């Protein structure tokens, strides 16, 4: 093993860029392992755990860029380093478009006076300062960065509220503003349904289901995952509801989140009762009675929320393909599985997609484990080992510490896929493949060899292994959604038509009772 280290002093790159570059660096032919990151204490901790933290790296400062390459020889590492440095130089460009660089938010605002939104993606130690500077310049903010304290988040949102501005985040990964996807997002048609989401992939799923049902999105406003926690109080969701209620283009509003804190839910429901437009509420795992009492429209799943929103715009249900569950397929899969094959293993890139499938399983089975289970009794103590029905969110900190998010690099799941395939009690392995802006250029392609190997492992032991895949995307996305689906199908993967159907099919495949 040969180790190559390069530290670039006072050289900053945002986390989104570095995750993408790190993914590409690890795909270089002569690289066994590459680590491209800022020299933060968290990133040094990752290297320490990998026994790769040298004294030189230990001395690096927060504002320094670390490039570490593990390869077969010094010569190969030098070649790999040149290739990695080329990755930093490649920037997407459009004909006739000039990209200028500015040292501060203030100088950017001065030189682009018509701008009204800033996307902040810097180390958490500096994120609050930059977000505050943008707000003080009168800019709406999408704060992609995480590692921001609750106290700082509250202060930023209070400042934005006082100025009538959006403060999306921290840890806000998805938005569509004026038909432009920001960070992670899908290409959906423009329309009259506004989405407000405390969940990135949940918001994406809602937007693509609305598109699939023939509707369109006016705005998709992300709040950040903690907005509905008690300490934050739902400031961003409440402000966004008022903004969309006053927006002429928006005719229906949809809310998507995990269940909020009880005190925050009361505030949201009270705002729904004051809203002059229909509000569809999809709080995954939430309850219906209070939503209906407040005058809202309750939806149990993202698919149901999208359908109800589209119907509220005047579309007729009989004109839509509702993608009902395929019961003959369910019976066919059940017949292939042995009696001992009774468990689901979900391997998800999207947190809300994982949640939605997990809650579907929880409706039918008493013991469902996960790294994101709210019930501590069923939260995995060791995320490297599955128990009974297990659903894993590979985008959670348990799996992303020092690694790219799985939406950027879905191959993080390969080892676990093969591990689950060896378990004789597993009947179905469920996975998502997320398309769109910011995601991997070919999420299906990087998993195909592993999928075939997983199938072969089970076949060698004379077991059928059902692999269920869901491709989150639209016909307008790139890579082509239909091509991704066809390649999965050719590898023997069963395709689900939505996140909601993914959960329902998974639980029904392994059920040992009647088909209905």
Automatic annotation (TrEMBL):
Coiled coil: none
InterPro entries: CoA-bd, SUCC_ACL_C, Succinyl-CoA_synth-like
CoA-binding domain residues: 190-284
Domain ATP-citrate synthase/succinyl-CoA ligase C-terminal positions: 347-502
Protein name according to UniProt: Acyl-CoA synthetase FdrA
Lineage: Bacteria, Pseudomonadati, Pseudomonadota, Betaproteobacteria, Burkholderiales
